[in-house]
Design a protein that fits this description.
This protein is mainly alpha-helical. The protein contains 17 helices and five strands. The chain has helices at 37-68, 73-79, 82-99, 109-127, 129-134, 142-177, 183-205, 209-212, 221-243, 267-286, 290-324, 335-362, 376-390, 395-402, 414-431, 439-456, 459-472; strands at 9-12, 18-23, 27-28, 244-245, 248-254. It starts with 8 loop residues before the first strand and ends with a helix.
Length: 476
């Protein structure tokens, strides 16, 4: 990993038809030269911890809140389209724009910090939408309720679009600052911070924060959660921004056919680059190899089921809880009952994220690798090393170890695991019919999907990466 600063100027043609000049040197915690690699990766990935807390806050709290304001479930589905829509639109655009950024902070951090600022304000607006609406209308009036709903929906959309900017920059920093040989390790740390962020976000969302904070962060659970979420989002990304050093882009000129720069940079270049990226994405989708297209088809179908799990699980569990107390509708139940139901739903998502984190740690070593098997010489070396090691053990222990299953399991391939995960997910979705009156049953179903969610976030991406290599090698 590169360290140090200085005025190093580098010229490169990292993109076809472009000339780029850089100054500086990229690095992580450069002022601590003997820092362990794990600490560097934690500092780089810490922002993803705050990022996942923000996602957890929205997924657990936004739908019960909008429902309590009287927004119908059909309209809520339209509201939460903002999540996938923003991911589809924002990330390619901000990626192209940041590639040409010439800020002294580097290419990624200006967008990352701006996205954090906007997202934290929008998160606070979600919690205080009723108070802000009271500035313009009288409380308990129809106009106040409508304005509160409008502000809350606006907050959800702004959170989704701005947090996707932050997420794109977090991922780009990881690619920019970590050498290719260390990318798998850095991505593993990123995955862990995402997992811990989800566990922590749902954990503190299930606490009675109004009682614990004695109301000084707001008189409702939602206000306290959004305040904590905004704080952690800003804090973690401030640490990441202070820990990394980016190269500064000095010049980004398109080249003509003779290799000379046109000198027509700025917004026009960014727009041309964006349009080129979008055309390339469209062409790629039309010409995907069949195995990769099949993976995308499965993902597309499975996400039909994941959309309600991610955005409506808390509401589903909370509604079952309120009906068990004799209140027919969640929106018309007392405020304390709604808050307790939301906490119970958030607790179910906490166990969901806990199982997902455990699965991401335990399962990968058990799955057979999707790479060529060792050569005969490597295999003989491993066998001789194992034999010499086992010869030093007591006979009863050698016998016990011989009877243990070999890890990784040769029969457990990644496509098979993904199939098992999708089958389990389908069974859990169908079993929701039998948990319509049981809070414990509904919570168990939501928690059980944590296993499937972990595999869904890992298996298809690893399979596509493997298939891409196979396509390059003309195996498909």
């Amino acid at each position: 990993m590169a360290g140090g600063g200085g005025g190093l100027v580098v010229s490169s043609g990292s993109k076809k038809g472009r000339r780029r000049r850089w100054v500086g040197r990229a690095g992580i915690l450069d002022n601590w030269p003997h820092c362990p690699t794990s600490i560097r990766f934690i500092a780089l990935a810490l922002g993803m911890f705050g990022l996942q807390i923000t996602w957890s806050c929205e997924m657990a709290q936004a739908s019960p809140y909008l429902l309590s304001l009287g927004l119908s479930k059909s309209w809520m589905s339209i509201v939460f389209v903002a999540g996938p829509l923003s991911g589809l639109v924002v990330q390619p655009i901000v990626g192209v724009l940041s590639d040409s950024c010439k800020s002294k902070l580097g290419r990624r951090r200006p967008y990352m910090l701006a996205g954090c600022a906007v997202s934290s304000v929008a998160t606070l607006l979600l919690g205080w939408s009723g108070d802000v609406a009271a500035w313009f209308t009288s409380e308990s009036s129809t106009a106040h309720n409508r304005l509160t709903i409008a502000l809350a929906v606006l907050a959800v959309y702004v959170i989704d679009f701005s947090i996707n900017v932050v997420q794109a920059m977090d991922r780009s920093l990881l690619v920019d600052l970590v050498p290719p040989s260390q990318q798998p390790l850095a991505n593993a740390w990123a995955s862990r911070t995402f997992g811990f962020g989800a566990v922590f976000g749902y954990w503190f969302g299930g606490l009675d924060l109004v009682r614990l904070t004695r109301g000084w962060m707001g008189g409702t659970q939602l206000k306290a959660i959004t305040a904590f979420t905004a704080f952690f989002l800003v804090l973690t990304h401030a640490v990441t921004a202070a820990s990394v050093t980016e190269r500064v882009l000095l010049e980004d000129d398109p080249l003509d056919h003779d290799g000379e720069g046109h000198g027509a940079g700025g917004i026009k270049d960014a727009g041309a680059g964006l349009w080129g990226e979008l055309k390339e994405i469209g062409a790629t989708l039309r010409t995907l190899p069949r195995p990769i297209q099949q993976v995308f088809n499965v993902q597309f179908a499975s996400w039909m089921g994941w959309f309600p799990i991610l955005f409506f699980s808390t509401t589903w569990v909370a509604e079952i809880y309120t009906r068990s107390l004799g209140f027919p509708e969640f929106a018309t139940s007392p405020a304390d009952v709604r808050e307790e139901g939301t906490r119970i739903g958030t607790r179910a998502m906490f166990f969901h994220s806990l199982l997902a984190l455990a699965t991401s740690v335990v399962l990968p070593p058990l799955v057979a690798p999707m790479v060529p098997t060792p050569t005969d010489r490597q295999r003989d070396y491993l066998r001789s090393a194992q034999s010499s090691l086992s010869a030093q053990l007591p006979s009863f222990l050698r016998s016990f170890l011989r009877n243990l299953p070999h890890i990784p399991f040769s029969w457990l391939s990644l496509p098979l695991l993904w199939t098992i995960s999708n089958g389990t997910f389908a069974i859990l979705l169908l079993s929701s019919y039998f948990a319509k009156r049981s809070v414990a049953g509904a919570s168990a179903i939501i928690a059980g999907t944590g296993f499937c969610w972990s595999v869904t976030n890992w298996a298809p991406f690893a399979i596509v990466s493997h298939l891409s290599v196979c396509v390059i090698l003309r195996k498909y």
